[in-house]
Each structure stands twice: as structure tokens, then as C-alpha cells.
């Protein structure tokens, strides 16, 4: 999330109002006659023959005005403003996302980029810490369930955040919990402590990888595979279609990994003491009440998940050119638009 100065706020709203006015005039047919006269005419490019659509051209002008104002006033970082065509052209039915992205990269690269930016937003707000501590306090009455709680959080986060990023975010919290267990459970054997520490660290890594399998953006190979199928065989797999197979497989693998880690290879049978729970609760209390930034990122996170799941339905029902990569870019821009409370 982004902190804007007063003059940048003015530029932001001036650009937005101007853009909305241009789009409304286009929707209601108030387009300059000189542009309307070109409707249906054609011109050649090096790649194709383009048929002029005056309404689409007017919408492009609206996006251009918005970008010019935001660039001039630095309402958003320059690089973020440059992403606006990727977000707006498909929504305005000017071109599809891949056509807008063609001069730069495959559309799945932008899906990847959006996942990284969302991960940074979650990490900067501290939401991942609260999620992890709440989960292990809810289910962590034994060593095995403490590991299971961490694995569940890791799997859920890695569904929309890169698995490597998820592991890096949860690793410090896991190390802190290992220290709490070592200092608060009386008479815990060295073997039990070693088994718990190992199972927890491996559990976070394995669960992040398993959760990453359940969605397209969870890990890089998924995106490579989806791109390969589309380019070589014309098979298009969207976010929800992948989840219909990926989520059930991930659930089975996650449970199996938990059983193998905590019951077979590194059996952890100790009970969490009252002091352990108290220290974990103190770690949660140290975070303070839910902050405004955490609330904001929670809503944005929820919006991203819902938009990814329903993008095909919206596209087919309403004819709006929204794709998974477009959702990622829209969410990235929103993270820079929504002001931080810090």
C-alpha cells in the first residue's frame, strides 16, 4: 500500500474524474464527429489490418488522459501507472489482455507479478503473523496439531502467494514457536524437541509447496505448464478450472504429509502446556488489535480470490474481458491506490 502527499491526492482524483467523464461521453455516444467519421475504416500495420472502432478509440483516449495526469502529478508510482492499459483495455473491450501485453511479455508473467505484489502487501501489513498465531492457538493442543496448524496456514497462503514467499514469511514465526516450546514444556526430551523442530520446519516448506499446487499462481511451474498448453495445443486453463483438480489433490497430500511427518518419521506426542499457550497468546497480543492495514489487505486479498474464481463466469455472462492476469494487475494497482495507515 502507498502513502500519497496532498498534491498527489489532487492529481489522483482529477485524473479519475476526467477519465470517468471521457468514458461516460463515449458510452452515451458523445464522440467528436471527426473521430466518429472514421468508424469502420481500415488501416494496415506490419502485422494486421485494423478496423477503426470510434468508441474504443475514445476509450483509449480516456486511458491516455488518465495516465498523463497521474504521470504528471505522480499520483501513483510511474511504473504502476504504466500498468493501467493492461488493467483497463480488456475491461473496456478495447483489446484482450494478451493483445495488450504482447509488446512486453506473456500474460502469465503478469499473473506471476500480481501474486508477488499481493504477497508483499500481506507481509508489510503483518497479516500472515496474525493468521499463523490464531490458527495454532485454535488447533495447537499437542505438538502434532501445532505442526498441523502451521501447515494449514502455509497451504492456504501459498494458494495465492508464491510458495517460496510463503515459506520465508512463516519461517521466523515457526522458529519463535520452536523456542517457546523448548522453554515452556517441562521435561520435554531432546528427541521430542528435535522431532518437533524438524517436523515444523519441513511441514511449513512441504505445505507451502502442496498449497502452491492447488492454484495457477501458487508456484512458477504451474504458470509454465499453463502457458505451454495454451501456446502449443490451444488448451486454455483458467484459475477456477485448475482449482477444481488442484484443491482436492492438495487436501489429500497435505493430510498425508502431516501424518507422515508427525506420526511416522518425526513422531511428536507431547502436550502443549498452559505456559506454552500463554506465551503464544502473548505473541498474538503483542501484535495489538487488528490494524487498518490488515483489514484493508484482507478485503483486497478476498477480492482477488473471488475475482480469480469467478473471472470466467463474469467473462461469459456479462461479456467483460476480465482474465486471471487482468485480475492480478487490477489488484496490484489497487494496492498502490489504497493508502497505508502508517
Explain this structure.
- The chain is mainly α and 342 residues long.
- The chain has two domains: 6-111 and 320-337, no CATH class; 127-286, no CATH class.
- It has 16 helices and two strands.
- The protein has helices at residues 6-27, 33-36, 54-73, 78-81, 84-91, 97-101, 107-125, 127-139, 143-157, 163-184, 190-212, 220-233, 239-265, 274-286, 292-318, 324-337, and strands spanning 42-44, 49-51.
- The protein has a two-stranded antiparallel ribbon with strand order 1-2.
- A hairpin with a 4-residue loop joins strand 1 (42-44) and strand 2 (49-51).
- Helix 7 runs antiparallel to helix 15.
- It is elongated.
Using only CA atoms, what is the Rg? 24 Å
Count of extended strands: 2
N/C terminus separation? 10 Å
Question: What's the helix count?
Answer: 16
Q: What is the helix/strand order?
A: HHEEHHHHHHHHHHHHHH
Outline the biggest β-sheet.
Answer: 2 strands, antiparallel
Q: Quick check: average pLDDT?
A: 85
Helical fraction: over 70%
Strand order of the largest sheet: 1-2
Low-confidence stretches: none
Q: How many discrete domains?
A: 2
Q: What structural class should be given to the helix and strand makeup?
A: mainly alpha
Name the overall outline: elongated
Strand content: under 5%
Amino acid at each position: 500500500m502507498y502513502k500519497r502527499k496532498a498534491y498527489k491526492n489532487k492529481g489522483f482524483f482529477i485524473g479519475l474524474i476526467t477519465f470517468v467523464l471521457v468514458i461516460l461521453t463515449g458510452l452515451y455516444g458523445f464522440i467528436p464527429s471527426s473521430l466518429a467519421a472514421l468508424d469502420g475504416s481500415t488501416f494496415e500495420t506490419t502485422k494486421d489490418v485494423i478496423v477503426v472502432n470510434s468508441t474504443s478509440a475514445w476509450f483509449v483516449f480516456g486511458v491516455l488522459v488518465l495516465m498523463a495526469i497521474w504521470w504528471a502529478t505522480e499520483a501513483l508510482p510511474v511504473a504502476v501507472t504504466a500498468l493501467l492499459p493492461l488493467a483497463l483495455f480488456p475491461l473496456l473491450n478495447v483489446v484482450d489482455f494478451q493483445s495488450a501485453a504482447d509488446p512486453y511479455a506473456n500474460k502469465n508473467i503478469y499473473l506471476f507479478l500480481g501474486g508477488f505484489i499481493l504477497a508483499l502487501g500481506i507481509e508489510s501489513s503483518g497479516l500472515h503473523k496474525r493468521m499463523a498465531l490464531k490458527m495454532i492457538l485454535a488447533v495447537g493442543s499437542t505438538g502434532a496439531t501445532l505442526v498441523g496448524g502451521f501447515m494449514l496456514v502455509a497451504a492456504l497462503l501459498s494458494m495465492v502467494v508464491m510458495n517460496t514467499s510463503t515459506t520465508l514469511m512463516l519461517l521466523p514465526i515457526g522458529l519463535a514457536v520452536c523456542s517457546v516450546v523448548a522453554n515452556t514444556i517441562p521435561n520435554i526430551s531432546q528427541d521430542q524437541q528435535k522431532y518437533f523442530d524438524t517436523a515444523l520446519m519441513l511441514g511449513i516448506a512441504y505445505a507451502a509447496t502442496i498449497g502452491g499446487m492447488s492454484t495457477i499462481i501458487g508456484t512458477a511451474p504451474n504458470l509454465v505448464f499453463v502457458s505451454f498448453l495454451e501456446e502449443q495445443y490451444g488448451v486454455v486453463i483458467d484459475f477456477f478450472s485448475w482449482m477444481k483438480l488442484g484443491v482436492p489433490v492438495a487436501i489429500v497430500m497435505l493430510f498425508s504429509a502431516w501424518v507422515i511427518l508427525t506420526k511416522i518419521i518425526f513422531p511428536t506426542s507431547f502436550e502443549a502446556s498452559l505456559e506454552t499457550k500463554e506465551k503464544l497468546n502473548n505473541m498474538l497480543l503483542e501484535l495489538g488489535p487488528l490494524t487498518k492495514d490488515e483489514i484493508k489487505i484482507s478485503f483486497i486479498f478476498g477480492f482477488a480470490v473471488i475475482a480469480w474464481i469467478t473471472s470466467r463466469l463474469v467473462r461469459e455472462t456479462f461479456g467483460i474481458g476480465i482474465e486471471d492476469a487482468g485480475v492480478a494487475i487490477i489488484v496490484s494497482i489497487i494496492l498502490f491506490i489504497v493508502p497505508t495507515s502508517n
